[in-house]
């Protein structure tokens, strides 16, 4: 009689005769629990089709507003949003190829930086807007206390911050530049 499987998984590496009574010979898609039994492994599933042919994913962001809930992915020279099983390119800007990309949501905009190109944002999940004023080339951005803070690709020992966001709900807040 088998009391438990506290011996764990045995892959038959030493032959079938080496499996003890408290070992599991076929442990695919299962995990041992604390009490010696086995539970079903959670597993994984394909989330969608290939993002960009032959290009690694270099960053993932999430834009969530009252009307938008979009997964945004950077690969190659493009940033794409998930559209069903496929990915559609956001228009308006082409990025330097194969750069690690960081995302930061500030209010209703998702800011995108890669340490090589000007700061870019999307507020609709389908188009990109470049912020070219004041040389806004950053490696990472964070939103805090109504300002966007960003590292600078040229001066790595500095942190820059934006003008404060205005809270006029009739006019969506816009980052105008860094002080």
Radius of gyration: 24 Å
Give me the count of strands. Answer: 15
Uncertain segments: none
Quickly give the structural class. Answer: mainly beta
- In whole angstroms, how far apart are the ends? 75 Å
Shape: elongated
Largest sheet: 4 strands, antiparallel
> What share of residues is helical?
under 10%
Order of helices and strands: EEEEEEEEEEEEEEE
Provide the residue-averaged pLDDT: 81
Lateral strand order in the biggest sheet: 5-6-7-8
Which band does the percent of strand residues land in? 35-45%
Could you give the topology of this structure?
Elements: E1 8-9, E2 23-24, E3 30-32, E4 38-40, E5 57-64, E6 69-75, E7 78-83, E8 86-89, E9 102-106, E10 109-113, E11 119-122, E12 129-131, E13 141-144, E14 147-151, E15 159-161
Parallel strand pairs: 1-2
Antiparallel strand pairs: 3-4, 5-6, 6-7, 7-8, 9-10, 10-11, 11-12, 13-14, 14-15
